[in-house]
Amino acid sequence: MGCTPIGKLTSGCPERYECPSLTAHDNEKCYFNGKTYKISDRLPDEEVAQFCSVLCYCRAAKPFATFRCAHIDCPEFFHRFDYENCLRTYRKGGCCSVKSVCGAERDKLAQCELENEIYKEGQRIQFKDNPCRTCICTAGFNANATETDPNCYESTCGFELFQEKLLYGGAVPVYKKERCCPWEWRLPQESDKVVRSAPAVSNDPNLQCKYGKLLLNVGDKLDMAEENQKMSCTCSVPPLLHCVLN
To answer: What Gene3D superfamilies does this protein map onto (predicted)?
Structure first.
């Protein structure tokens, strides 16, 4: 969402995030990745290419303004593919493959190795310990220099495009281990209760997580009654609860 980290704890994590699209939301505007768009404004195609979307624009809607986009159906979605003899190659941040390489030509491609996995030039490299980061395998790839590799990038989650009613309607994203973007969303329930961890360190409302009618201090957990075996929600770094599937 393009939130700004504020402060720094001894753990290295931010003390909190500043998220104007949540705390100062204007229902007549759209928000994406830290930027604000007026009605009829267009999103640059390169910012939404990874979602297989183009021509996104902000339109008036109730209860919140929303983006409307055209969806791209990649040609490879409609054809059988010879996975044993061929591979698809990609560009950084793109949706559809650039081309297919087969047989002897495939064998000539440069190789990349990361976390004991072998990739061919043009393939997407996924990180086991950081599912939000992707690299495109290129000749000269250095597994020890992925932070500065221009062909590596952080994924952007598209919930501001596709789940805006949940996001701005009070729901919190629920994450799953080894997944980058939210797996599902949870709306506040009347039966929700706060489990206090300790006396509040600060009375600053900016250091609280607001969820429905509840205010949680850092370290507090959410008691979800019958759901508590399915997920856990904690106020770790305000303003949003951090919910993870168990």
So the answer is: Complement Module, domain 1 (2.10.70.10)
